[in-house]
Amino acid sequence: MSLLDDLRAAVGDGHLLVDADVRATYETDWTGHVSAPAAAVVRPGSTDEVAAVVAACRAAGAPIVPQGGNTGLVRGSVPAQAGEVVLSLSRLVDVGDVDRATGQIEVGAGVTLAALGAAARAAGFDAALDLASRDSATVGGAVACDAGGARALRHGTARARVAGLEAVLGDGTVVRRLSGLLKDNAGLNLPALLVGSEGTLGIVTRVRWRLVPALPSRVTAFVPVDSIAAAADLLGELRANVPSLEAVDFLLPDALRLACEHYGVEAPVRDAAIHLIVEAAAVADPTDELAGVLPDDAAVADDTAGRARLWRLREGQAEALEAAGESHKLDVGVPLPRLTEYLERLPAIIEAAAPGSRPILFGHLGDGNVHVNVLDVAPDSDLDEAVLRLTAELGGTISAEHGVGALKARWLGLVRGADEIAAMRAVKAALDPDAILNPGVMLAPPGAPAP
Amino acid sequence: MSLLDDLRAAVGDGHLLVDADVRATYETDWTGHVSAPAAAVVRPGSTDEVAAVVAACRAAGAPIVPQGGNTGLVRGSVPAQAGEVVLSLSRLVDVGDVDRATGQIEVGAGVTLAALGAAARAAGFDAALDLASRDSATVGGAVACDAGGARALRHGTARARVAGLEAVLGDGTVVRRLSGLLKDNAGLNLPALLVGSEGTLGIVTRVRWRLVPALPSRVTAFVPVDSIAAAADLLGELRANVPSLEAVDFLLPDALRLACEHYGVEAPVRDAAIHLIVEAAAVADPTDELAGVLPDDAAVADDTAGRARLWRLREGQAEALEAAGESHKLDVGVPLPRLTEYLERLPAIIEAAAPGSRPILFGHLGDGNVHVNVLDVAPDSDLDEAVLRLTAELGGTISAEHGVGALKARWLGLVRGADEIAAMRAVKAALDPDAILNPGVMLAPPGAPAP
Question: In this complex, is the C-beta atom of A295 within 8 Å of any C-beta atom belonging to chain B?
Fold first, then answer.
């Protein structure tokens, strides 16, 4: 049989998509990038069907691109080469009951973060991980990229939420660890290796998610600060003195201005070198805890509408940027002690690589995660390389939470040693011996030129 | 040069131990088990020296057993075969400063959990992971076994605390990820694979540890409950209604009696089918939160001495057991929905395998982690096999937090599929191609008989 026949047998006729019109949405990612054409899109309805798709693709030597909500920025979820098979997890949307005794819930990989959060809240719990892209981004995608968002400061990234998972490895092995045992170190922890592996080792199909208790009292503050260094000091004070601290995001002035103009609102506080959005959540009102540490000119909201108004200036950045035109988007991380230097040097680096462009900078201060967005960039600029080189020079990472994807694979050597990358390749070969899972993502094809 | 000459060159004359008398403490684990004689004990003083030891042993084909505090129960840190080299991490005891902005501290692998906790507290933070063996157990050992202890209920196991680490892999590669970036998914997360790998893939030399805020108000309750099922229900209520919940351990009646007799004290509450030790910690006194959920006949302590008296009945189990004679110790986990059945069937299984023996059962209810201790067991009993088979039958794990070691390696197939174990072997071969790291630990030698 042909590959398409095998895929049809695996998932059923209605879930094999071959028409170009129907494929198009699966071949276009969140940034608007249109990929190479897929051989087909398959939408398996169970883990067994995922395994059957993997078997069919292995037999045919056809590469597979696993796809969740497709909200990535690095071309990790659309075909890099013509003829790849897009494996959409969009039908794995089963949401289990919250297990109150363990504080866990089992969900399909295609469940959105919004749906996960709603299920948790309905049972008096909290999913602990949330992203602005929550209505599209999926649990499987968050796990595959080890996403974190703003609340990783308190709760850790997706890694910390995975109490178990089920996945189909590149060699066809089904790893099934869904007992919900928080402590289970019988054998190598293959699930932990899969978290953040960007679909290069296996395809996550189900996740057992560790919830946290819902905290009824939540306060948000918008804080003007006069230097990055002072912001880092304030972060230290908050960490030490506000146990209910949940998030510390930041906006540089141009980003704040962009959002204010887009939404037609005044800035909530005075001008400053950097603005922080600080959130605390607790059983009892955490306002007093915060008040002891925050400056008097912070704007504080403890009601839902007021909090949403403050957060919109941060979470609405993607929307405001989209309205302002096409933007380059790089998701990087820099250790806090180097962040001042990074943010001071970055504008000149950007201007040199993309003259006349407009950097819009914001991110998660608590973990040094900077979302570098640049408007008005000429198509042939060397912006990515220039920004990633500066990031690496200051001990940072070329990917904080979006992954390396195909877009950044050739720069992985900036932040990982050659022998460590060789070790990664050896692990990849061990679990995906036919190299059919997401080829070219994370690990550049052997022999590809180094930057 | 000979192996010993190479090792001497690697670590210096004073840190190569070859005399049988000096080696003896390194060849005897916490259970009193005396291992096969080591070729030598080496005590490297830096990561570079660890790498030099690995190189020397690779060249000579000599297996290495990494050793931390040697508090394990499964023969994972002493030689399984004569001629292995014990690599003690006991000189890697550097304790860095707490980085307040990130809430992290960098420590050598040989630092004890007690020292880690003290350093955290001195800076107004909390290490979040604590074990009864804290004065001996090391950070490196906790990471290698993904240990969790009582407070994993709230804070997760060691895995959740690792913000970065440095390790020497079996192939000599040094993995160094100490930037402290909470979000850094550039490439496969080899550190996450190393957590819980029991020294079979690499030797952890340094760890960047994620602290949590210190919580000043701490309350402990000792709670009599009339059935395991009722205890699981109470756990669910506590999870949902007590956000400050930190630990829920348990003791069955024989364990409580043993500790009371050993310490010469009365039980703090009435007789019951199971006793829970519940701990909550918060900024403000969590007594009211707890009071709404706990039964009236619980004993509650919010002062240091009172709390210590209650916890001693649980943490003193190892000491009480030691005073009572030699005991078999198995660390297993069972999903909460099956725990009633497990604890009901276990005594008969134990009696059949070891007639006349005395089971002493306690553990961490929050994660279904049961420490099975049995006194008065005949040397040739099949107790381990009988207990592990029941555990696996009920969907549990043969190792919760102590690891598989050499002792349980032949039973790994009870809880992991043959293809998943094959995948583990492939990963092992990728990172330790000469198979010199902890051979026989976790993964039984190929061809060893299945149970």
Answer: no
